[in-house]
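Researcher: For the record, we're logging two predictions in this thread. I'll number them. Prediction 1 follows.
Model: Prediction 1, sequence and structure:
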Amino acid sequence: MIKFAYFRDYGRAERGAGDATWAAIQELNAKVRKGAFKDDAEIMAAADEVVNRHGTGKIQRAVLRTVDIGNGRTMKTLDLRKREPFGRLETWLEMHMGVGTVACLGVLAHADFALRHPVGWTLFVGSMIVLVTGVIGALLYRFIPEKLAKADAGIPFEEAGVARQSYQTCIDGVLATLDEKLRAEFAPLALPATTPAEVSKRSSEVMGRVALSHPESAELARDLLVMAASRDQLFWSTAAARRYDRWLKIWRWIHVPVSVALFFVIALHVWAVLWY
């Protein structure tokens, strides 16, 4: 957790402030269409006042656009844009990739294409790993977001994991309250099923046994079966998203530590050259 309040709260707004700002901007748009403002400067002043009043000035800004409404007519309208004080992330990423590539290849030029010292080999090998993993990362971040969107199960896989754990906790809690004989009938539900066919088979078997030996617990059996099936369905439906996220994590576990180690070796090399 970030301890300093300024950094913790920078770029944040109160819950509901975004919706309130948007609603107020639409009210201003209605006034703009009626000609309530004399010029663009007055419109923007009113829009900025709305953004600042609702406390969203750190995360979004108002922009005035001219929209073509047909038949040679235009209309001015206010819109909200995400504020980016340090520029677009794509620009920083492209600069990072360009400078990183030149720096990695510059190691060889700096050594006159002759590696005679362990530090030189360390810098060369580390640079090549950073360069190769950087290219792989650029490809991953080009295709993975699109695949994640296509694999959308209607719930983020992180939230699905929390929901699965909640279902599992509920099932385990209910089983712990049952007598030993009835608990044995429901015990298979505590373990996740591997396929939908297994869920169907398990449900039929559990309901059949409960109907014969404990008919008074049929409603409880249905509730537990629904929870178990929901838990398993969440696991299957988010499998692709979790796999893509795992690829990105593996990439970060390689690229970032090697990059940090490479910077440390470079700093050590520069210090050694200046010292000696």
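Researcher: Logged. Prediction 2.
Model: Prediction 2, sequence and structure:
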Amino acid sequence: MNLQKLKKELRKQGLGAQKSKQRIKKRILLLSLGAVLIVALFFGYQHYQQTVPGRLFTKGLTLESKDHPAQALASYERLFRGYPETPKAAEALYRAARISRLDLRQDKQALYLFLKLEHDYPESAFVFRAQQEAAEVTKYQFRDFAQAIVIYQRLLDQKTEDGDRILYEIADCYFRLDNFSQARIELDALLERYPESSLRAEVFYRYANALLLDGMVKEARAGFDQLIESFPNSSYAAEAAFSLAELLETEERLKDALKAYRALKDYPQQELLEAKIDRLEQRIAKKKKVL
């Protein structure tokens, strides 16, 4: 092989090696770019996932403000079902329950969501409100007074400031279950624990009525008298006076009853009062004719 041929051969080999290096570099570059792209996509997806709950919550608020409750509910449901560990999940659940109850009138769905919030997020600031609404739905919509008592009791166990109102609701549930003795126990507890409660006049009235419904007429009369003495300016004092007049009428003390009814000049239900007076006057007149 002469020098010229050898030179050409070496040049070819050099060019081949150079092209091979370039191909390797290109592959490395493409692999590097692919890796960077994968990392970017991964972190981009992570960021997207992290921001989805916030966007769903904001979307729900916007839809609520525009009076689109069903769409807002769907947005909140996507949030608390798809991202239950995120900070806004509990509030989204509460808002979904409120929409179900107040806007869509879906009481069963609302109750389920309120109780789900209590179960899934026991430390949430929305639990107390969820329990309140669950108790109200159970009591007033489903009229399941026994179950409502259970929920109200859980509220009471939290030592809330409005414990007197919760105790009153428990007592009222027992009233509706015709368990008047237990209702009195709850009302007694209310009076003992909350001596400054604004509900005291009403509690005295309900307590006396519970005695009356249990056939304890003497004790009921004493209860109505105590209410009138303790809260003379309360509307319940007028109701107590009306109840005392009815007791006199039941005992056939017609003249005393008529006098008691006539003394109720400021009684709020004037039509009822006038009807009572007219009826008594007629009964008294008939008795006089018989005599």
